[in-house]
Amino acid sequence: QVRLVETGGGLVQPGGSLTLSCAASGFTSKSPTIAWFRQIPGKEREGVAVISGTDGSTYYGDSVKGRFPISKDNAENIVNLQMNDLKPNAPAVYYCALDYMAYPSFLEPLYDNWGQGTQVTVST
Question: Model confidence over 63-83: pLDDT tens digits?
Answer without folding.
Answer: 999 999 999 988 889 999 999
